Amino acid sequence: MDQHLLSIVLLTPLAGLAVLLFLPGGNKNLIRVWANLAALAGFLVSIPLVTRFQIGRPGYQFEEFADWIPSLGAHYHIGIDGISLLLVMLTTVMGVIAMLVSWSAIQDRVKEYYAMFLLLQTGMIGVFLSLDFFLFYIFWELVLVPMYFIIGVWGGPRKLYAAIKFFLYTLAGSVLMLLGILTLYFQHFKQFGSYTFEISELMKLNLPLGLQEWVFWAFFIGFAIKVPMFPFHTWLPDAHVEAPTAGSVILAAVLLKMGTYGFLRFSLPLLPGASADRTIVQILAALSIIGIIYGALVCLMQADWKKLIAYSSVSHLGFCTLGIFSMNPNGIAGSVLQQLNHGISTGMLFMVIGVIYERRHTREIKEYGGLAHVMPKFAIIFAIAMLSSAGLPLLNGFIGEFTILQGAFEANLVWAAFAVTGVILGAAYLLWLYQRTMLGQVTNGKNLTIPDMNFREVAMFVPLIAWAIWIGVYPKPYFDILKQPVDQIVQRVRPDYFNGNTVRNAAVIPAAPHAGGAQ
Amino acid sequence: MNLSAFYTSTDHFTITPAIMMALFGCAILLFDFFPFLRQRRDLLVLLSVAEAFAGYGLIQQQRWISANGVALQGFDGAVTIDNFSIFFNWIFLIAAVIVAIASYKYLEVAGEHHGEYYGLILFAQCGMYFLATGTDLVTLFIGLELMALTFYVMVGFLRSDRRSNEAAMKYLLLGAFSSGFLVYGFSILYGMAGSTRLSDVLAALASRDPWNPVVFLAIATTLVGLFFKISAAPFHMWAPDAYEGAPTTVTAYLSVASKAASFAFLLRMFKDMPAPLLAAWTPMLSVIAVITLTLGNLGAINQTNMKRLLAYSSISHAGYMLLGVIAGNDTGLKGIYVYIMVYTFMTLGAFIVIVALRRANIIGEDLDDIAGLIHKSPGYATLMLIFMLSMAGIPPTAGFLGKYYIFLALIQSGHFTLAAIGALYVAVAVYYYFKIVRCMFIRDAEEKTPPLAASLGLRFAVGLTGVLTLAIGIYPEPFLRLALATLR
After folding, report:
1. Is the pLDDT of residue A505 over 50?
2. Which of A22, A179, A183, A187 to mutate to test the interface with B (most CBs of B within 10 A)?
């Protein structure tokens, strides 16, 4: 069972999809129940990953390897380390919640909807599991098609525009990334005489810095569009605003993480020379900081609730990329944790919008006001989600942002100084949003009769809130899981980092929260 | 047992499949005269028998080659049987069979069901056979003309349809013009080499300076003729009109088999070109390829007629295959073979879906006609989605592999800019392919329309091409080996 655990996790949604296709299309509830069960099964089979994961063991775990296309040198090679473990768990959990969210929101073409979601689920898990570049690319592209349909068929008024924009942006980035992959592939043939897409094999390459930089920028375009980093972010607000609630949740919680994961898994370890290059790091850090501040400022002037949250993603993902390009254990570990946090918090915020949108069918902030009087349960849940996103201590967002800032501070004081303003602005736009929608007197008569949340709606928030509090109160297990893979990345990019060559580094390492991993 | 010194048993062996096609083609024409024999179903059976014999001949040739490990020449080197020719002939055969199956229903609906149609399919295939096997300028030219003349007739087969007549006339005039260029180039090549044998011609070219004006003139005029046939810019203008006007089944045949045959012709001429000559022409070819990609992709964006849209898309596919020629290495050639193979299946499939859309009073070629197809017939819609994804080159469909090899070949040969241009046009292509997808899946049907034409043959044809398009994408190993064998 252990040998095929990852395959089971990968294929469970697909198996659910296969059965779903044979269910009668007219019986909506049967389809809903089945899809929810399939997603739940997908989560349940992923639990052993956590319990059997050996913390601190170097290399990948639960590895599976088989020949797939020998004439290309492509293999079915999957496995996880600490970073992918967290992201896979995030994916399976969000899969269950996205299905629950859709229960009453989706009324037509139910079967196709759930089919697309299950396909999407397999694609996303595959991205995080792949240790072979060809396999990775297939899953990376596989994700686009179902997401296109989820936005394009079940989305809002400008769904067609948003869907094709999402597709074209990401695709343009990923074909350029493909050229980068093929360059590495060809270089491997030149240096070792064999064609292979194995990541571990490609890591043995010895590339001149100039070529590394070209490949790095090719990868950068692919990943930065997905994240999205500052100049490439324009697809995100459109896609988020038009997508149905569950689509936004998955898009924010998981899809964006594919970009940051790409940086961590591929750009940094495969191209250490280019990744450590001063100019490149500074450009990327600058783009991240622009993203943080620009995203937050745009949030402050949004009139649309959902668009506000969409732009807050740009800001939060800026923190994640800033952490990555701090190139130290704190920055990277904080970045991964913040990716998880963003998935939880922003996922919840989009669900909050979904709940209210189903009742009032508008997302204009000025339509609301004083909702706390009408919907007390809703107000509490929204408050928790909002505070976790804003980075209140004892909730998850704080830990992530704090660790990233610690890493940024270690790398460059100025970066940290600019990034901190993002935290302040983040609190500002979120609290102001809460104030405008929830507090004060009910000004709009239509809001007086809104029913509060029902059991299903509360139930879908409970696991996420629990998770947010867990990370906020006791993040140590997460840092323990992340320590080994993160140190490995840092070691790879900055080989002299752990030699204690500078006093400051030596002082920081033991103080960092991740270093407490007593086995 | 030799019939004569001019027609030995080896000669016979090298052209058996072509003889079968020609004989059965004539038989179909004859049968069509007799009222009691002209059951159309019988003609389809006759065609299948011809293809079975041709296929058997190909298998025999394949066995001979794998047993002896060398190419076999017939007619004193005028035709050559090798893995290359056999690979292409299988493509033609598959295309012909699938087109014939799809035509049966289509011509009935279109009200132009005439027996000679099946004969014409075989004659065209016979011409293609000589394009893939010919290694002599005269053989190649005759093959080309046999194929082209047959297509002029087939494009205008819907006699009562003005568009069809117009398309045939345009295709005929431009085609004749381009043949003139080609044969002019051939005459110069003959003048240089003193022989029409391709190997002699190549040797004569190798011994001359690549920038020799006579060599330049010969190559330039030959290329004009070839570019016309593969519909590369700036000689692509005929394609949208011919594709739109022709009966859809003929369009499928034209865009798949005729293009594959023209590429076989082009590769026969150019894959063994002396390296300095090829290097001298690379900048020119690059410009042509980029213009072809640009015009094909940008032209497709605004089309509302699906056949026109696919015509432009096939122009851009020709651009990608030309990029493989430019790379000029083994990976590039492999890329072209893989590309042609996957192009065959996905294009046939897409056109057959359009064939199925044709009903008694509905032409079924506009984007509006496909609106809401997912509700009316989910099977066709899903398969069409696969074909569109494959044409755009999105994994895990077959089309991705074709593009993959082309990009790899370009990177290997250091053409990074061309690779980037080719890659970015994938994103443009997705835009117009997804216009079709959007219509099928997101828009609702305009009004109540009768259900789609669905015969067993159509279902079989579209199902087969769909399964293959997906199978090549997910488990390409056996198919890649096939294409790889062609290199040897």
Report:
1. no
2. A179
Indicate yes or no: CB of A179 within 8 angstroms of CB of B477.
Answer: no
Find the closest chain A residue to B397 by CA distance: A138
Q: Is the link from the previous residue into B396 a cis peptide, with omega within 30 of 0?
A: yes
Identity of residue A243: A
Query: Which pLDDT tens digit goes with each residue over B70-107?
Result: 888 888 889 999 999 999 999 999 999 999 999 888 88
Nearest to B243 by CA among B317, B322, B140: B317
- Per-residue pLDDT of A389-400, as tens digits, reads 998 888 998 999
| CB neighbour list of residue B474: distance below 8 Å, 6 or more residues apart | B396
The answer to whether residue A273 sits within a structural domain is: no
pLDDT at residue B313, rounded to an integer? 94
Distance between CA B458 and CA B454 in Å, rounded? 6
* A384 located within any domain: yes
What would the pLDDT profile of A363-406 be if each residue is shown by its tens digit?
Answer: 888 888 888 888 899 999 999 999 999 988 889 989 999 999 99
Alpha carbon distance B396, A135 (integer Å)? 10
Can you tell me which residue has the tokens 């994640």?
A320
SS3 of A259-297: HHHHHHHHHHHHCHHHHHCHHHHHHHHHHHHHHHHHHHH
* B172 DSSP β-pair partners: none
- State residue A515's pLDDT score: 41
ipTM for the whole complex: 0.91
Scanning every residue of chain B, which has its alpha carbon at the shortest distance from the alpha carbon of A181? B408
CB B443 within 8 Å of CB B372: yes
Q: What is the dihedral of CA B208, B214, B216, B217, to 10 degrees?
A: -150
* List of chain B residues whose C-beta atoms are within 8 Å of the C-beta of residue A70: 477
Strand (E) or helix (H) holding A79: strand A74-80
Q: Report CA Rg, chain A.
A: 22
Q: How far apart are CA B240 and CA B244, in angstroms?
A: 6
- The overall longest dimension of chain A from CA atoms, in Å, is 74
User: Which letter does DSSP use for residue B98 in this model?
Assistant: H
The Cα A190–Cα B411 span in angstroms is: 12
Residue B162: count of CB within 10 angstroms of its CB? 9
Say whether residue B444 is in contact with chain A using an 8 A CB cutoff.
Answer: no
Reference A143, options A272, A262, A299, A308; nearest CA is A262
**Cβ within 8 Å, pair B389-A145:** yes
The Cα–Cα gap between A119 and B2 comes to 63
Q: Is residue A308 part of a domain?
A: yes
The C-alpha atoms of residue A272 and residue A250 are separated, in whole angstroms, by 31
Both ends of chain B: CA-CA distance in Å?
30
Q: Which residues pair with residue B359 across a beta bridge? A: B362
Instruction: Tell me whether residues A138 and B396 touch, CB distance under 8 A.
Output: yes
| A19 assigned to some structural domain | no
Q: Which of A106, A129, A109, A97 is nearest to A5 (CA)?
A: A129
Instruction: Kindly state whether A203 is in contact with chain B, defined as any CB-CB distance less than 8 angstroms.
Output: no
> CA-CA distance, A32 to A28, in Å (whole number)?
6
Confirm whether pTM is higher than 0.90: yes
Of B353, B360, B352, nearest to B449 by C-alpha is B360
Host domain of residue A313: 287-475
- Do B243 and B310 meet the contact criterion of CB atoms below 8 Å apart? yes
What is the structure's pLDDT at A518? 40
How many domains does the structure of chain A reveal? 1
In chain A, which residues have their Cβ closer than 8 Å to the Cβ of B416?
179, 214
Which pLDDT score, from 0 to 100, does residue A516 have?
40
Do residues A282 and A230 touch, judged by C-beta distance below 8 A? Answer: no
The DSSP H or E segment spanning B226 is helix B213-229
Indicate whether A136 pLDDT > 70. yes
Q: Which residues of chain A neighbour B426 with C-beta distances below 8 Å?
A: 171-172, 175
